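Quick one, tokens below:
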């Protein structure tokens, strides 16, 4: 990581006089390499489902006389095309995040409204897996709807960015947990910071993988993740969103015990009169 790349040019500027121009091009090289890797990864990720769909279509044609086989392989086509749609959705999200001209619209937001919007966006998936999502502020468990006078914490953020971040964490917590477990979303204030934690009782992350999970396209278990439809982009997008809001994200995890993702954002003074009603991000 500390290697530097130098471009060196020698020009003769007189009979016995030479000029040496040394330019540090490390950053440009690093950027180009990242772009090349990214394109290779995208191409690879797109090739997998499209190749599978082409093969499955052929199989369906060959099995036209067997309705059970047709039904089975058509189901597989649907799954693969859902994966493709998900990947494209994630790529568009990532592209939006990295758009240099993107304008963030920071505004004062209730941390609980953000958490509720992220939970609401995941209700259907949680229901399908019989997973309970419990929201709390500090030690107090709260309902799905805000109640008057409940405690809250305030942040200043681009609404879409922070809701996307928390929504992705809740989505992963559901995705990587066994059925009939609980996902906790805990909001609290710690000194000058507001903390939003997403805690699951899922499969956890091996120690060797923890340092990589925020990288684009990184998946702990590509085979498993492929089956369940992961793109490896969710956490890269999440980190981007949190940093766009001036915050940090960290993770604690133990295999087969579960994971805790923590977002920390600077707290701002609360003013209930300007409370925002936050809708789930699309
Ligand atoms: P994916 O689309 O594969 O979920 P992410 O970028 O969201 O991609 O996550 C990267 C990898 O980190 C996942 O493939 C998974 O192995 C691991 N991971 C993320 N969140 C969790 C979690 N809550 N529990 C266990 N593993 C997780």
């Amino acid at each position: 990581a500390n290697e530097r790349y130098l471009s060196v040019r020698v020009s003769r500027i007189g009979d016995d006089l030479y000029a040496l121009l040394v330019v540090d091009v490390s950053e440009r090289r690093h950027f180009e390499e990242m772009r090349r890797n990214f394109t290779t990864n995208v191409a690879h990720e797109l090739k997998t489902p499209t190749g599978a769909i082409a093969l499955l279509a052929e199989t369906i044609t060959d099995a036209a006389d067997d309705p059970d086989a047709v039904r089975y392989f058509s189901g597989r086509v649907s799954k693969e095309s859902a994966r493709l749609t998900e990947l494209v959705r994630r790529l568009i999200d990532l592209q939006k995040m990295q758009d240099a001209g993107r304008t963030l619209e920071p505004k004062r937001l209730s941390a609980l409204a953000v958490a509720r919007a992220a939970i609401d966006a995941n209700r259907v998936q949680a229901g399908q897996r019989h997973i309970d999502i419990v929201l709390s502020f500090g030690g107090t468990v709260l309902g799905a709807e805000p109640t008057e006078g409940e405690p809250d914490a305030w942040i200043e953020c681009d609404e879409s960015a922070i809701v996307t971040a928390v929504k992705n964490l809740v989505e992963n917590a559901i995705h990587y947990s066994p059925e009939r477990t609980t996902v906790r979303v805990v909001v609290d204030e710690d000194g000058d910071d507001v903390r939003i934690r997403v805690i699951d009782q899922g499969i956890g992350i091996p120690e060797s993988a923890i340092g990589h999970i925020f990288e684009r396209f990184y998946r702990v278990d590509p085979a498993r993740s492929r089956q369940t439809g992961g793109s490896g982009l969710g956490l890269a997008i999440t980190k981007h969103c949190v940093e766009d809001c001036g915050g940090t994200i960290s993770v604690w995890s133990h295999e087969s015990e579960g994971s805790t993702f923590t977002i920390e954002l600077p707290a701002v003074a609360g003013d209930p009169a300007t409370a925002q009603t936050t809708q789930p991000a699309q």
